[in-house]
């Protein structure tokens, strides 16, 4: 007999978790594993001792029920889907913050994020020339840190966070599958590049091949025509996505542009949020004090006249004196003056540095996109449409105009308020009979006219405004631009006598000119921004529909039925499992058919060779006895049933097995099954090529079975009812989860577990 070997795989951590884990996904690039639990939290853990890095608690706005997880291939962004709000969140791996999110039309049941590995000279040159825009456009300035809610989005001073969304220039695609046949592909995880129709059932597995030629899908179709309980059967479909692969350079370019555009829209949105926060409530003080004054006073003179009298005669009525001295006070006036100045200048800075540079960059990318759309032979078949992009450019132009208008309003408001406050300050000092410094006392005729104009224009009572807003005055003109409402501005800018507007009015031809951006004098900045987002979304939609329609089903096979099991534990990491071998275009599907016996695991292999002919072969694998040493029992080979199986890499499958002997404590085993022991050379023709008109489980008797005896790549999992496994062959790690979903163990798969090594390490760490 052989000496007892060291157990294979080295255990590096174990934890009992407070909440039930429903999803696990290893990071492709680092030893990190993302988990989602029943409570709706998303957690990130390290491999070493299963230490927690961060957790993102469920949130009212985003949602509470996580149904899918996927990592961007560079490991910098984690995507998760929420079913209650139907949103997809892209989260930064460094800290639990949402960088981008979007809504979808269905609740997501599966996500797969892949990278395109195809190489071509055109692509390589595009990857290298990616930074053209960086040479031409100024770098976007960082968003300020000191505004409360934005600080949650960008905790560092740099706004490079948002640039993380762009990620690597090499094309990657996030494939989403949902209920009732919903499948969408998002390039770079942000831009919807295809909305695929025509697949029945709710999606249980997806795999897009790395050359973008085919998309394999496994769906679960609920069929309640039988009298029994609902029966679901699985079917594997293979969709031909050759439009994407034949236009790969164009798709990449277009998707990259759209990703830049989405990122910039997000940047503009955040800049606007910062502006809204720089605008403070204290600025409303003047309006509300004056309104209160109108309601309480019992003389007939208007507020405007009261102030005019003070300006011209230097004498104020007792009521106005009471308002100024008791309610506004000298101190209050100073404070109000400072608030207005600091607030207005921050808003102004944000408009100049952030909004303008963001929207200029947006114009640049949209114009490039329009250039692409005009190159019809390359881009027309992808659904790029020049007229839609034209409209988007126009909408961005209108937004820039509105931002400029806001700058002018801030400019004039600051001038007016300064002069007005300076005059009022002196008048109030006089009332309180304080000493007025001589340099404050000088007031030229010009200053007086200026203040008089300000009073005439801004201090007239407006009863209809009172009915709309509950105040008679609108002295403060900046806030209205930042309000997120559909209604018109309270006091739009005065364009009477403006020569340009008169010129436009009188020339019929210029009105229709595409070179002139339409101007919405009555609308707020938010309104114009929303309109711009809507138009851009519209022009981003079209390619997805066109490409989606080009996808057609190449093959569709019914696999097997499952009846509703008595213990309705949700089979969360469930088989069937899809894998696509990048090097040789083979799609594998792993599954077990509970109806017959779980002791076999079935491997379906779809091979597509260069002539695009497809062969589907299937084998069943059962595990011979490798735990007990007595030979005579091995006649019955049904020793183990397979609980979970995942591809570890292109050559190996990781499985969790359970002894099926009739005894009390059944051992659970974690094992590596090499495909070479399944597909040996001599039985190349032993795979069943089946009749696709019938469901696979109806012909399961004909499926050839191989019995495999594992040699050393297995380990008994003591004191653990293991049920599920998540693996990552690149990092050579696995994570086993118990059937109660709370007990986790992590292993390094390529190291043998030596007791001694661990002790030494522990000493070092302590």
TrEMBL record:
Residues 238-434 form the Anaphase-promoting complex subunit 4 long domain. Residues 24-115 form the Anaphase-promoting complex subunit 4-like WD40 domain. Pathway: Protein modification; protein ubiquitination. Its main location: nucleus. It is found in: Nucleus. It holds the Pfam family WD40_APC4_C-half. Residues 578-748 form the Anaphase-promoting complex subunit 4 C-terminal half WD40 domain. GO terms for biological process: anaphase-promoting complex-dependent catabolic process; cell division; protein K11-linked ubiquitination; regulation of mitotic metaphase/anaphase transition. GO terms for cellular component: anaphase-promoting complex; nuclear periphery. InterPro entries: APC4 (IPR024789), Apc4-like_WD40_dom (IPR024977), APC4_C (IPR056358), APC4_long_dom (IPR024790), APC4_metazoa (IPR017169), Quino_amine_DH_bsu (IPR011044), WD40/YVTN_repeat-like_dom_sf (IPR015943). Transmembrane segments: none annotated. Belongs to the APC4 family. Component of the anaphase promoting complex/cyclosome (APC/C), a cell cycle-regulated E3 ubiquitin ligase that controls progression through mitosis and the G1 phase of the cell cycle. The APC/C complex acts by mediating ubiquitination and subsequent degradation of target proteins: it mainly mediates the formation of 'Lys-11'-linked polyubiquitin chains and, to a lower extent, the formation of 'Lys-48'- and 'Lys-63'-linked polyubiquitin chains. The APC/C complex catalyzes assembly of branched 'Lys-11'-/'Lys-48'-linked branched ubiquitin chains on target proteins. This is Anaphase-promoting complex subunit 4. It comes from Burhinus bistriatus. The gene is Anapc4.
């Amino acid at each position: 007999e052989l000496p007892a070997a060291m157990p294979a795989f080295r255990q590096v951590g174990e934890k009992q978790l407070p909440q039930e884990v429903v999803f696990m996904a290893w990071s492709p690039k680092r030893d990190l594993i993302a988990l989602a639990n029943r409570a709706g939290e998303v957690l990130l853990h390290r491999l070493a001792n299963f230490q927690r890095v961060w957790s993102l608690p469920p949130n009212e706005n985003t949602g509470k029920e996580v149904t899918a997880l996927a990592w961007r291939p560079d490991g910098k962004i984690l995507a998760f889907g929420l079913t209650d709000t139907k949103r997809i969140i892209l989260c930064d791996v460094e800290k639990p913050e949402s960088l981008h999110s979007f809504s979808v039309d269905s609740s997501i049941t599966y996500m797969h994020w892949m990278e395109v590995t195809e190489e071509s000279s055109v692509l390589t040159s595009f990857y290298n020339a990616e930074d053209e825009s960086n040479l031409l456009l100024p770098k976007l300035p960082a968003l300020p840190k000191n505004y409360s809610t934005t600080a949650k989005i960008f905790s560092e001073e740099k706004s490079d966070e948002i640039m993380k969304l762009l990620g690597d220039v090499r094309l990657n695609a996030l494939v989403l599958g949902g209920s009732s046949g919903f499948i969408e592909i998002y390039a770079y995880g942000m831009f919807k590049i295809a909305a695929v129709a025509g697949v029945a059932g709710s999606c249980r597995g997806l795999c897009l091949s790395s050359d973008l030629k085919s998309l394999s899908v496994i769906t679960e179709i609920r069929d309640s025509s039988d009298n029994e309980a609902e029966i679901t059967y699985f079917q594997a479909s293979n969709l031909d996505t050759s439009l994407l692969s034949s236009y790969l350079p164009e798709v990449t370019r277009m998707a990259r542009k759209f990703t830049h555009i989405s990122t910039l829209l997000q940047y503009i949105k955040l800049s606007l949020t910062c502006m809204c926060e720089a605008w403070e409530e204290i600025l409303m003080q003047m309006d509300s004090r004056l309104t209160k004054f109108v309601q309480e006073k019992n003389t007939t003179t208007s507020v405007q006249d009261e102030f005019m009298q003070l300006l011209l005669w230097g004498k104020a009525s007792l009521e106005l004196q009471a308002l100024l001295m008791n309610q506004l006070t000298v101190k209050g006036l100073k404070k109000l003056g400072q608030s207005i100045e600091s607030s207005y200048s921050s808003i102004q800075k944000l408009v100049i540095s952030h909004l303008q540079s963001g929207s200029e960059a947006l114009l640049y990318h949209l114009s490039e996109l329009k250039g692409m759309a005009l190159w019809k032979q390359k881009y027309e078949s992808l659904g790029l449409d020049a007229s839609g992009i034209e409209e988007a450019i126009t909408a961005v132009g209108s937004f820039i105009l509105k931002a400029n208008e806001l700058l002018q309003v801030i400019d004039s408001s600051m001038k007016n308020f300064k002069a007005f406050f300076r005059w009022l300050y002196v008048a109030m000092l006089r009332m309180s009979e304080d000493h007025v410094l001589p340099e404050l006392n000088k007031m030229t005729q010009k200053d007086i006219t200026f203040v008089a104009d300000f009073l005439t224009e801004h201090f007239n009572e407006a009863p209809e405004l009172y009915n709309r807003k509950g105040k008679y005055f609108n002295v403060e003109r900046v806030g209205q631009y930042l309000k997120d409402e559909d209604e018109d501005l309270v006091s739009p800018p005065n364009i009477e006598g403006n020569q340009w507007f008169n010129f436009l009015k009188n020339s019929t031809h210029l009105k229709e000119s595409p070179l002139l951006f339409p101007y919405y004098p009555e609308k707020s900045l938010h309104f114009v921004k929303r309109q711009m987002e809507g138009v851009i979304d519209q022009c981003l939609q079209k390619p997805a529909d066109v490409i989606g329609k080009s996808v057609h089903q190449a093959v569709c096979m019914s696999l097997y039925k499952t009846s509703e099991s008595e213990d309705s534990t949700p089979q969360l990491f469930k088989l069937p499992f899809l894998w696509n071998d990048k090097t040789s275009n083979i799609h594998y599907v792993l599954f077990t058919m509970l109806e017959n016996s779980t002791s076999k695991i079935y491997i379906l292999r779809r091979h597509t060779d260069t002539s695009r002919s497809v062969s589907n072969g299937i084998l069943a694998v059962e595990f011979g006895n490798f735990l007990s040493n007595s030979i005579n029992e091995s006649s019955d080979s049904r020793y183990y049933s397979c609980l979970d199986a995942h591809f570890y890499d292109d050559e190996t499958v990781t499985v969790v097995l359970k002894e099926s002997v009739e005894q009390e404590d059944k051992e659970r085993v974690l094992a590596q099954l090499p495909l070479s022991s399944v597909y040996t050379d001599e039985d190349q023709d032993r795979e069943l090529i089946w009749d696709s008109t019938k469901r696979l489980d109806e012909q399961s008797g004909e499926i050839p079975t191989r019995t495999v005896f594992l040699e050393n790549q297995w380990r008994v999992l003591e004191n653990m009812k293991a049920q599920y496994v998540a693996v990552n062959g690149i990092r050579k790690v696995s994570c086993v989860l118990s059937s109660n979903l709370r007990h986790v163990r992590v292993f390094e798969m390529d190291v043998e577990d030596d007791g001694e090594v661990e002790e030494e390490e522990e000493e070092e760490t302590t």
